[in-house]
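Entry 14. Structure prediction run on the chain below.
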Amino acid sequence: MHASLPQASLDQLFRTARTHNELGGEVSDETLRQLYDLLKWGPTSANLSAARFVFVKSPEAKARLSPALDAGNHDKTMAAPVTVIVAYDLAFYEKLPYLFPHTDAKSWFDTKPEADLDVIGLRNGSLQGAYLLLAARALGLDTGPMSGFNNAMVDAEFFAGTRIKSNFLVNLGYGDTAKLFDRSPRLPFDEASQIL
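Output returned:
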C-alpha cells in the first residue's frame, strides 16, 4: 500500500482525465456494480456512508429526470448512457449499527438537529461522490459531473417519502477527447496551499 501508482494510472485518474459534455457508448449494469464496489471503500466520518446513488439508465428513468434538468444540461444528460444522481440520506445513522459495530455510533447522531444532519450528510455524501468520479475513471469511464438541475424536483420524483436529498449529477459513458475544450488552468501550490 505504500508504493506510488504508475504514472499512467495517475494520468488516468487526474492529469489527463477530463469532464466530458458528450458521452456515448454503453455502460453495463455489471460495470455500475463494479463502480459502486470500488467507491464504497473510500473513507467517511465514522464509516457512516451517507451517499445514495441512483443510476438513471433506462429511457423511462431518463424521462422522469428530464423535467428537472436546466436547459444547458438537458440534451447531454439525455444522450449519456447513464446519469448518476448522487444523493445523501439524512437518516444515515440508522445504518451505523452495521457500519460501525464496535460502539454505539448511532447515538452520536440520532438526536442531532436536522440542520446538523444535513451538513454531515452533505459533506460525507460529497466525498463519496468524488470517490465515484475516481472509481469511474479507474474503470475506464469518462465522467461529466454537474449541478444545474432542480434538486426539489429530483427529490420529489426519486426520493419521495424518504429523508434522501439529491446533491449533484454525474453523466457516465465514453467521451471523445477531440470534442473537448482546451484544459483550464489550476491554481499552483503556493496559491492554494501552505505547509506550516
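Residues 123 and 172 are 22 Å apart (CA to CA).
Filed with the rest of this week's runs.
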